[in-house]
Every structure is written in structure tokens, then in C-alpha cells.
Prior knowledge:
Distance between the termini of chain B: 35 Å
Number of domains of chain A: 1
Largest sheet of chain A: none
Mean pLDDT of chain B: 96
Radius of gyration of chain A: 14 Å
Number of helices of chain A: 6
Oligomer: heterodimer
Structural class of chain B: alpha/beta
Amino acid sequence: MAFMHEMAAGMGGIRTAGDLVARMVMKGMKIDAAKEYVADKLGCSVFDLSDSARMKEIRESLDIGTVVLRPHASNGMAAKIKIAELLDIKIPSVELFMKQIGKSL
Amino acid sequence: MNDKYFTRMGDGEGVWMSKEQIREEVLAGMEDAVTKGKSQPMSSGDLDYLVEILTMPEKNVSVERGHEGITTYDAGTLKMAVRSGIPIDSSTALLIHERVLCSDTMEICNTDYSYKQIKNIVSEEAMAIERAQMNCIMPIFYGAMPNMGLYTKPDGPVDNWSELLPQGKVLEAMEAQEKAAALCTNDMVYICSIMAEAGACGIQFDTAGASGDADMLAALQASKILSQKYPDLSITIGMANEFTLGMHGRLKFEGEKLAGQYPAKQVKSVAAAGAHSYGPVINTNSSRSFAWNLSRSLTYVQEATRVATIPVLPNVGMGVGGIPLTNTSPTDCTSRTSKAMLEIGKADGL
């Protein structure tokens, strides 16, 4: 059932900009404001955010993680460190990781 | 079959109805929410569009391009690794959601989905969060229910108000609930603090209010403390019901009485608690039609989104939000609910 909801109405996760928009909604932004914020940070249109072809190019160019893994491309924590910088937000797990390795963003 | 459309009842059984019958069901469902919940009725344009969605010939439907919202989960890692019996651990389930199903967010949780039960294994749960965050890109919540009933004897230290009330011991029942709410709040703050410090992106208080207004109060109090303690931690509160049951009856949060709150007031209490999103629950009546249930749910959700200052993410799982009360919801109903919740309900996601 959950997957049907995602296909019918979800943003598309890391296939598009779903994880990025979700991070802003999780800050308390309404969906339209969250989409505009992310589009502005990515330098694309709101329309592009749920276009998987366009977002694949954008995500690859920013190296913030894609569905299909590629050699030497960022993934997991490495991608999230870049996402925190890109969206100008604090991500708790990134903060913890940076503390563990004795660095700060 | 002229003017007959395949639709369903609230238990998922298929039925054929005329467009006029579907419209009547839609109007009756809306009227129920207007009468009981004091919601504003949907506009005639929204009603027409809802009937159009319900009578679309496609088996599955989706939102129009640009109307997508974000998806969140309750009982997140239970769905594949436990309920579906797939022999994987929760961190694998997270990655399947991220890389295969392309979920926007995901939730890690324990099989015994109540905060009190997590207290003994909180370190192991925190390690699971910490490990999972190394591999995941999408945001990860930790979630469970306040489930305040677990604080009653013999499982907990407090007298059971459901036994006290039939004996006419009203004051004793109220006092027991206040004690349980305080214990529940303390446990949730303790557990969620450890999850926050382990790097959880968010905390989910799911099925809040299941034991009534004191259960809701515990979630709100915990949210308020955690939101001040961890400003970067996202908090979402999902409800148990469209109506906060007044088991206590006199409890207030930030000056507002909790008993009897419907979604439009629940969302204000949730926002006042510092939470970042709110999940209304509107229970499905399995004896009524899918059209009746979806219309009723949308009327409540619209009322909440109309006044909300935070994102509204309606619960649309089994038996809530218009979804039929069956473990395997027919996808025709699931997808119509998704579409209607975002396009008519103006929800920010699910």
C-alpha cells in the first residue's frame, strides 16, 4: 500500500529531489515553499524537481547521490555532507559524523 | 453496464454504483464531517473533482505533474522485514526503500512499536540509527507510539483508569492518567534524546491520543521539550483518531483543552508543541462506501490544512484517511486517496 502512495503522489526520493524537499518539509516548511527553496538551491525550476531525467543530471553534477551507484561517486554520509552544505541546513547525522572525525562544516 | 462505475466499500469489497449514487455518498460523507467535526463543507468544484477521481476509468491514478508531496512512514521498517516476512534486517529495508522504491523518507522502528518497550533496548536502537545513517541519503525518522496504556497495572505502576471509571472513581481515574502521562513523557524524552544524539533526522510520535487526551498530552509535552533541546531534530505527531477522546476530560496544553479536539484544533496544538508536521487520522467506517469515507476524510483534512502553519501529512494506511479496512488495500482505492489528499485536501504529503 505504501508503495502505491509513493508512485501515485510521492516526490520520488533520490530518483528526483524527494529527499531534499522532504528535508525542508521536516523543518516545518509547507510543500510549495519547500519545493521553491530546493529549486533555488539547485538552480533549477520547481517543475524539474520531480523530473527523474533532469534530476539525475543535477544530482550527478552536484555529486549528492543517485539511485544507481557509480565508481567514486558520493553515497550515504558523503552525499549527505554535500546536501547539508547545498541546502544550508544542519543534518543531525552529519553533525555527529563530523564531530566523530574531529571536523566541523 | 451504463452509468455504472466500479468502486468499493469501506472493507474493500467491490461494488458497482452510478455516478449519482457516488455523488450522494460523497455528499453524505462530507455532511458527516461538517456536522460532527464542525468542518467547512468542500466547494462544489472540489466535490465535482472528487466524483471525477472516483469515476476515472483507470485502475490506478496519480496526482497531476507538479502536485507531488513527500511521503513519510509509520511502522516503517516493520513493513518488509516483519509483516511481509522478508528475511532482511531493518538497515537493509531502509536501503531498499531508498534505492529501489525511492521513498522520500523512511522510519526505523522496533517490532514492539511503543516507546516504553524501547527503554530496555534503547542503546541497540540508537546504534541501528547510527549505522543506518552512514549508508542512507534520505532522511530517517525514529518512531513509536506513546501508548500510555502500558503504564497501567500490571504492566506499569499506575492504576488502570478504565477499571476505575466504571467504579465511579472519577477523580482517582483522572489522577492515574496524570501520573501515567508524566511517566510516558519522561520515557519519550529520554529515548528520543538518545535517538537524536545518535543522529536521527526526526522523531515520530505515532498514534498519539490512543489512550485519550492524557496520551496526547504526553506526546505534546515530549515534543515541546525535545524541540527546545534539539532545534535541528524534526518532530512529527500522527494521531490515533479524528477526535481526541476525553478519557480525562480536563487536560489542557498551552491553554487549550485537548478532549474533543478535531483535526483543525489538533494541528494547532501540535504546532504549539514545536512539532514540524502533523498527521491527521480519520477512521474508516467499513460499513460505508469508499466514496463516503474518502469524502469525509477530505473534509476534515481540508479544515486542518486551511488553518495549519505546519505541514499536514494525513495518515492513509489501513482503515484510515478513506483507505478500506483491509490489510491489502486495493490499489485503485490507495491511489485515488493519494491523489485526492494532495489535490483536494491540499496536504503537503502523506
